[in-house]
Amino acid sequence: MDPFQIPPEIDENNACRLVIDVTSFSTIEDGRVVYRKGKNLEWWVDSEEYSIIDMEKDVSKHFGWASYQEANFWFQNQNGDTTRLATDQQLITLLRALKIVKFIMTVNRCEHVDVPVNGTQMADNELQVMGNELQVHVSNERDLLHVPSRVLAAEYEG
Predict the structure, then answer these.
(1) How far is residue 71 from each of residues 55, 120, 121, measured CA to CA in Å?
(2) CA distance 106 to 99
(3) pLDDT tens across 129-146, in order?
(4) pLDDT at position 1, please?
(5) Contact 156, 138 (CB under 8 A)
(6) pLDDT below 50 — which residues of the chain?
(7) Which of 14, 30, 34, 85 has the most CB atoms around it within 10 Å of its CB?
(8) What angle do CA 113, 51, 24 make, to 5 degrees?
(9) Which pLDDT value is given to residue 115?
(10) What pTM, to 2 d.p., does this model score?
């Protein structure tokens, strides 16, 4: 099927093309820092039956992120300002108003979740996440991590 052709299960009157620019991000997978290169994703949706959760699920078919991270969708409002998509009603309003809706998706740290390292919480160590940079401050030299990435910086404070 042509990706630019409206799928038969979507009513042509409700069809809206979603274009999501997923930005590059780092995540932890199996205890290792993994870099995910961003890319554009596009698909058709029904403007009357689509939600932010549906959008996250559709993106997660192509990208995975850690449980301490969340996807945020951003769009350009009528004033030209970049605005975070906050509600399903906001999404439906955009989908109903336009035939093509563009978002930028970022993956950020959840504010309410503690970040695990290697599946366990670091008892005597401090973890800081600033932007896309993850810093670990360890109190014991044996806890130093070797990760071949500039994303994770470990410092010994002993």
Answers:
(1) 10, 23, 23
(2) 23
(3) 444 444 444 444 444 444
(4) 59
(5) yes
(6) 117-158
(7) 85
(8) 55
(9) 52
(10) 0.68
Which residue segments constitute the domains of the chain, with CATH numbers given? Answer: 15-109 (3.10.20.90), 126-156 (no CATH)
**DSSP one-letter string for 12-36:** TTTEEEEEEEEPPEEEEETTEEEEE
Phi and psi, residue 80, nearest 5°: 90, 5
Instruction: Tell me 157's DSSP state.
Output: -
Identity of the amino acid at 66: A
β-strand partners of 134: 129, 152
Residue pointed to by tokens 């620019």: 21
Separation between Cα atoms, residue 113 and residue 44, nearest integer Å: 33
Helices (H) and strands (E) in the chain, counts: 2, 10
156 residue type, one letter = Y
In this structure, the strands spanning 69-76 and 100-109 are antiparallel
What's the confidence (pLDDT) of residue 145?
44
Nearest to residue 119, comparing CAs of 153, 68, 154, 64? Answer: 68
In a 3-state reduction of DSSP, which class is residue 8?
Answer: coil
SS3 state at 118: coil
